[in-house]
Amino acid sequence: xxxxxxxxxxxxxxPWVTRFWVDGLPCGGDSYxxxxxxxxxxxxxxxxxxxxxxxLELGPLEGGHTLQLTRKGSVVVAIEGREAxxxxxxxxxxxFNLDRVEFIYADLRTMDFNSLGQFDLxxxxxxxxxxxxxxxxxxxxxxxAMCMFLWTHCAADEKANAVVEVDGxxxxxxxxxxxxxxxxxxxxxxxxxWPTRExxxxxxxxxxxxxxxxxxxxxxxxxxxxxxxxxxxxRGKMRA
Length: 240
Prior knowledge:
CATH superfamily of the largest domain: Vaccinia Virus protein VP39
CATH topology of the largest domain: Rossmann fold
Distance between the termini: 58 Å
Helix content: 10-25%
Mean pLDDT: 93
CATH architecture of the largest domain: 3-Layer(aba) Sandwich
Number of helices: 6
Strand order of the largest sheet: 5-4-3-6-7-12-11
Order of helices and strands: HEEHEHEHEEHEEEEHEE
Largest sheet: 7 strands, mixed
Strand content: 25-35%
CATH class of the largest domain: Alpha Beta
Structural class: alpha/beta
Oligomer: single chain
Low-confidence stretches: 236-240
Shape: globular
Number of strands: 12
């Protein structure tokens, strides 16, 4: 019996967003290639060697970042809230024999992170801007690790048209309309909240992450300004 090609194996569980490479050939989708994603290198530059580090990954999508992290020698626990994405994550784990990875199907908004134990690092990339109340997730992560790498979208100051109150502090930003639940890159709620750059700092501080290093702020990022931060509960605050 002829063995099925990797492309056909991937196609059976598609459609995919993420592109994977098998023996030099592309498999999966063509919208996003994590092997070419500079955020992994930035994360490693801030965290130091990832070998042997226990990492909590939020919203792995289809396991693209997870694969890159485990190839650095990390032990990864990744939480995914979409069933279709979770099934593709499990496929990636089995296809690439990722024995240092655990995928959990759960809603980040209600996840009991304390039940997972302690982590060395949190990899929080592409998730926060999909949440209607992002500060709640940040608060729930306080006891999971001392350090968090965060990449998210912000609201440009001139487009901020909403104010929410968190612990008595007003935060300016905008309410973003998410896509339908059938869209793999949208959130699980109809709308999400994007704070401005200044209010993102305030939100992190109110949520138990007061010590920040701004790694990058890109006002020209697609969809809206993007922020890359290193949140360290053991160091003083720095600005880029």
